[in-house]
């Protein structure tokens, strides 16, 4: 009996030992498989990491190549900007010079206002050699820095550079009407070339202040508003303009022996272009403005 129990116990111990080994082997196998799976995952991650690292390296190399190009473009843009700024500054400097040259050239232009034309002499005297002639209405150009030269018998001369070089007579003091400014002629759409005196009486004593008429008759009002042209200052008549400026529209002229009527309640009007002259509005023989310094009261 005891032997049977001992044998049974022995067999049970053997079975338990075999079972433990089997369990151990199963766990070991399972762990090994899991280890292999983890190792495979690690290998895959390592490969992907290597690929990413390679991509990063490539991007870095491309960025390194692009960076100098960006720098070059930036430098070229700055250079172009600097060139544009320089051109703009030079243009700003040139523009006033062009305007100045144009104004100076325009201010030197004159047109012959003598119907017989003018003789061009070598020197400012009628006895000097004749170098040519300029016709009526022909344009001439004064020399830069020109000045009026008093010649024999009190005649005033001026030097021209075009169309030929020499000296021409402007006339006598107080009647220097042989040449007129081109700008004034250009505005004369009818082809007339009336002369206006460029100098004014500072006091203009021949134009008293007009007061409002009361019960005077029409004839008395017309008589008080009547004016004649000073033949010494405007021997060829007086131009009538649309406004108080030589640059305004030309409407016609009043002949030197004609009379004109001022508007009621007239007043002296300063020149709108800043010239040293005053204007007055007239109603007859046509409506417009005339240079006040060329008028005298009707006799």
Overall helicity: 25-40%
β-strand number: 16
How do the helices and strands follow one another from N- to C-terminus? HEEEEEEEEHHEEEEEEEE
State the helix count.
3
Q: Roughly what is the average pLDDT, rounded to an integer?
A: 78
**Poorly predicted spans:** 186-221
Structural class by SSE content: alpha+beta
Quick recap of the structure?
It contains three helices and 16 strands. The strands form four sheets. Strands 1, 4, 5, 6, 7 and 8 form a six-stranded antiparallel beta sheet that branches. Strands 9, 12, 13, 14, 15 and 16 form a six-stranded antiparallel beta sheet that branches. A two-stranded antiparallel ribbon has the order 2-3.
Structural description of this entry:
With 299 residues, this protein is α+β, with helices and mostly antiparallel strands. It has helices at 2-107, 182-186, 218-225; strands at residues 109-112, 118-121, 130-134, 139-142, 149-150, 156-162, 166-171, 179-181, 226-229, 238-241, 250-254, 259-262, 269-270, 278-284, 288-291, 295-297. Strands 1, 4, 5, 6, 7 and 8 form a six-stranded antiparallel beta sheet that branches. Strands 9, 12, 13, 14, 15 and 16 form a six-stranded antiparallel beta sheet that branches. A hairpin with a 3-residue loop joins strand 6 and strand 7. It is rod-shaped, with a radius of gyration of 54 Å. The model is unreliable at 186-221 (pLDDT under 50).
């Amino acid at each position: 009996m005891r032997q049977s129990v001992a044998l049974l116990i022995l067999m049970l111990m053997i079975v338990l030992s075999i079972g433990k080994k089997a369990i151990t082997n199963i766990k070991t196998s399972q762990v090994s498989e899991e280890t292999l799976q983890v190792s495979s995952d690690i290998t895959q991650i390592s490969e992907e990491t290597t690929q990413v690292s390679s991509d990063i390296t490539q991007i870095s190399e491309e960025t390194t190549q692009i960076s100098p190009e960006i720098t070059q473009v930036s430098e070229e843009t700055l250079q172009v900007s600097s060139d544009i700024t320089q051109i703009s500054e030079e243009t700003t400097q040139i523009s006033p010079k062009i305007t100045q040259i144009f104004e100076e050239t325009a201010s030197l232009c004159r047109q012959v206002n003598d119907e017989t034309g003018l003789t061009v002499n070598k020197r400012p005297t009628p006895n000097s050699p004749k170098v040519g002639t300029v016709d009526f209405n022909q344009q001439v150009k004064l020399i830069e820095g020109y000045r009026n030269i008093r010649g024999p018998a009190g005649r005033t001369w001026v030097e021209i550079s075009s169309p030929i070089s020499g000296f021409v007579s402007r006339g006598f003091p107080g009647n220097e009407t042989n040449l007129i400014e081109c700008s004034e002629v250009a505005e004369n759409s009818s082809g007339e070339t009336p002369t206006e005196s460029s100098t004014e009486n500072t006091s203009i004593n021949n134009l008293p202040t007009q007061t409002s008429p009361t019960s005077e008759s029409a004839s008395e009002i017309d008589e008080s508003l009547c004016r004649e042209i000073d033949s010494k200052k405007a021997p060829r008549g007086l131009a009538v303009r649309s406004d108080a400026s030589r640059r305004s529209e030309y409407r016609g002229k009043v002949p030197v022996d004609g009379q004109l009527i001022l508007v009621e309640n007239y007043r002296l009007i300063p020149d709108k272009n800043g010239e040293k002259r005053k204007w007055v509005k007239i109603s007859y023989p046509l409506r417009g403005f005339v240079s006040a310094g060329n008028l005298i009261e009707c006799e």
